[in-house]
Amino acid sequence: MIYVDADACPVKAEAEKVATRHGLKLFIVSNGGLRPSQNPLVEMVFVADGPDVADMWIAERAGPGDVVVTGDIPLAAKCVEAGARVLKHNGEALTRANIGNVLATRDLMADLRAADPFRQGGGRAFSRADRSRFLEGLERAVQSAKKEAGNGD
User: Fold this and answer.
1) Taking the CB of residue 152, how many other CB atoms lie within 10 A of it?
2) How many Å apart are CA 65 and CA 145, to the nearest integer?
3) What is the pLDDT of residues 6-62, one digit of tens each?
4) Which of 21, 62, 77, 108 counts the highest number of beta carbons within 10 A?
5) Class of domain 2-148 (CATH, top level)
6) Of the candidates 45, 42, 46, 74, which has an alpha carbon nearest to the alpha carbon of residue 59?
7) From CA 145, how far away is CA 139, in angstroms rounded?
8) Domain ranges of the chain
């Protein structure tokens, strides 16, 4: 299965395309405000408003053989710990080998922003190259998860 942390996710359509190609169930999880997909493989999951409610829904379900798409680093860490494959929106894989450094960097940047109110800007814009890297990364993650499950067709 593929789980997408859908609030502010720029690659929902790409995730649906890959899930459909592989015949996988795709969960689009958000607090609402998204147009439902007509694809029978896509389940829209609308959770209650509140901090991290969508994250908790995904973290409680994701495990070995699953792929999670998120930009939320604490959620990514929980899913990696549970054995799921995790991808950021730009296709970067978050693994047991790198999640500690990614978490530490996130915490450092949060501290820097808190210490300097003028250091608030976001990152660079999401590009076509990021979208392409995401598609490649998701394809690799799905193929790897299917092989792990003994279902490499």
Assistant:
1) 10
2) 5
3) 988 899 999 999 999 999 999 999 988 888 889 999 999 999 988 789 999 999 999
4) 62
5) alpha beta
6) 74
7) 10
8) 2-148
